[in-house]
Design a protein that fits this description.
With 384 residues, this protein is α+β, with helices and mostly antiparallel strands. Helix content is 21%, strand content 35%.
């Protein structure tokens, strides 16, 4: 085969190949076009990822809140106790001075009616030193009153008023109190604003307050309900309209700092007051125990000054002749460190330890005599 012939065949093969490729391309494009028009072929773009259907959110559950009409509860409590709250007024005799006798003065505080017989409970410091007493009822009626008995250590006094009592206060249970409970104070602040209502909460229970007289008032109720001068002796009330405490003091500061505190009021628990009041009504006084000694409270500063062997205790200055302590074998100069189950310590004075017991009880008294530890059994008597 000649070279010309070979070239001719090569050209024909190339023409046929090119024609076949072009025709295939056109035919393929036409087929795709018809398929797309007919909807039998989808786009070559990646199909989107299917989204899973999310469950419909559950409807919010209704919260059942008890329907409490707080304002009505407070109003009902005040309406229940308010008529039994009184203003206590006392007349104190004038004092002798370099310039002569001063005029008689008037003191006032609050109280509440314990019984239809006219027994009224108030603070001892409200009536202390008063020669004449009267009570002013919620409606403004003034009635004469007399002191039936008092206990200065509990700061409580019971009066007996003459006349018809408009209401009697119901007593609650102070042992069941919990911080955060609503507390309502009723009294006569400054002696002029009779039956004023203030409200707060029970801030704490079980507080101890130093009286500055050698003992502490124990198990006190702390409240932020406003208590002012003249509120003393008035009731601290719960939402049930029951007296849970007797308002007795406020604290503005601690004496060691210039900071002034607000909302620090204290009340005597009603369970304590009930025991004292019932005995005063029955006997005319509240019986406190006595050992028949005169003592000096030992504190760290005194212990350091006199080089004493203990930081806390009761130093026996003298003994009553034939008294319980002398009969038991205690002597002048002994240092009492424990009475019964109670150590004399920073938060438990001699009197506080002694007052955990009653007249007639026998208690073990531990003491030091020339640094030697000793103990005796003392038969307590009534304090004279």
């Amino acid at each position: 085969m000649s070279l010309r012939t070979k070239v001719f065949y090569l050209v024909i093969v190339m023409v046929v190949a090119l024609s076949s490729a072009t025709g295939g391309t056109l035919l393929g494009g036409y087929v795709m076009y018809r398929a797309l028009r007919a909807g039998t072929l989808t786009s070559t773009q990646a199909a989107p990822t299917p989204v899973l259907a999310q469950p419909a959110p559950a409807p919010p559950q209704a919260v059942n809140v008890p329907a409490v009409d707080f304002q009505s509860d407070v109003t009902r409590a005040v309406e229940t106790v308010g008529p039994a709250v009184v203003t206590v007024v006392g007349t104190v005799s004038g004092q002798a001075t370099f310039w002569g006798m001063t005029s008689d003065s008037q003191t006032s505080g609050s109280g509440f009616i314990l019984s239809g017989d006219g027994h009224i409970l108030t603070n001892y410091h409200v009536i202390e030193g008063a020669k004449e007493l009267s009570v002013i009822l919620a409606d403004g009626t003034s009635l004469p009153a007399e002191l039936l008995g008092a206990d200065q250590f509990a700061d409580l006094a019971v009066l007996k008023a003459s006349g018809t009592m408009p209401a009697v206060a119901g007593l609650g249970n102070s042992d069941e109190l919990k911080p955060g409970e609503t507390a309502i104070a009723i009294g006569s602040p400054l002696g002029s604003f009779r039956n004023t209502i203030t409200m707060g909460v029970v801030s704490a229970t079980g507080r101890s307050m130093d009286t500055g007289n050698g003992y502490q008032m124990e198990n006190m109720i702390q409240t932020d309900a406003a208590i002012n001068q003249g509120n003393s002796g008035g009731p601290l009330v719960n939402l049930a309209g029951q007296v849970i405490g007797i308002n007795t003091m406020i604290v503005r500061g601690n004496g060691y700092s210039s900071a002034v505190a607000e909302g620090l009021g204290f009340a005597i628990p009603i369970n304590t007051a009930r025991v004292v009041a019932e005995q005063i009504i029955e006997k005319g006084y509240f019986a406190r125990p006595d050992m028949g000694i005169r003592w000096v409270d030992i504190i760290p500063s005194i212990a350091a000054r006199y080089d004493l062997p203990v930081q806390w205790g009761g130093y026996v200055r003298s003994l009553t002749s034939g008294g319980p302590a002398q009969q038991a074998g205690l002597a002048q100069g002994d240092i009492i460190t424990r009475i019964g189950d109670y150590d004399i310590a920073e938060n438990t004075s001699f009197l506080n330890a002694l007052f955990h017991y009653a007249p007639g009880q026998k208690v073990t008294v531990e003491f030091l005599r020339d640094t030697k530890k000793m103990s005796v059994t003392v038969n307590l008597r009534e304090m004279q």
